[in-house]
Amino acid sequence: MSIHFSLKVKDTSMNEKMLVAEISNLGMSLDLNYNSEEDIVDFNSTYDIYGFDITFVKNECPPFNEYETLFLQNNFKYNQSVLFGINKEGDFREIYSKMLELIFNLMSKINTNALLTSSVHDDICYFENGKSIYIKSTISFSDIIEHYAKIHGQWNCFYKQS
User: Fold this and answer.
1) Which residue, 48, 1, 49, 46, is CA-closest to 19?
2) Contact 42, 35 (CB under 8 A)
3) Total-model pTM
4) Does residue 26 sit in helix, strand or coil?
């Protein structure tokens, strides 16, 4: 059983080569499965070693590409998503750290808005145009999010009450 996280990206600004490069830069091994009919790339080999698997959805289609979020007045519309299935038996802080490191590396390369959500925490944080990140104040691992924001140096952190 997994906890599911989703990085919902506003613009069509990522591709599988970018994702492969960022995963490789973290020293993670890859086993790709590409489903061209559904425009999905699965990175299966990461689950046992790193505690999560990754699926990249290249093109999200209406009406399934909107999310009601506490960070915005209107629904967030997104065109791509990176899905993470987290192993519930693993060390959460270690797994979240690796996942967030990957997310921040990706977000530092694309200049767009994105929303990070999960099946347990709902809204987690909102990335705005490569400059600001709004973090839900009740998230237990907000310190890890803030840590990676500081490492990358480009993010101003703000906390949002739920």
Assistant:
1) 46
2) yes
3) 0.92
4) coil
Are 13 and 112 in contact, with CB atoms under 8 Å apart? yes
- State the virtual CA torsion across 139, 47, 55, 120 in degrees, nearest 10: -30
Cis? peptide before 63, omega within 30° of 0: yes
- Reading the block at residue 132, the tokens are 């600001």
What's the token pair of residue 75? 């629904």
Burial class (CB in 10 A: 0-12, 13-18, 19+), 4: middle
Q: Which residues in the chain show pLDDT less than 50?
A: none
Q: What is the phi/psi pair of residue 141, to 5°? A: -110, 30
Phi, psi dihedrals of residue 140, rounded to the nearest 5°: -70, -20
Amino acid identity for residue 152 in this structure: H
Give the mean pLDDT of the chain.
Answer: 89
For residue 48, give the amino acid letter. Answer: D
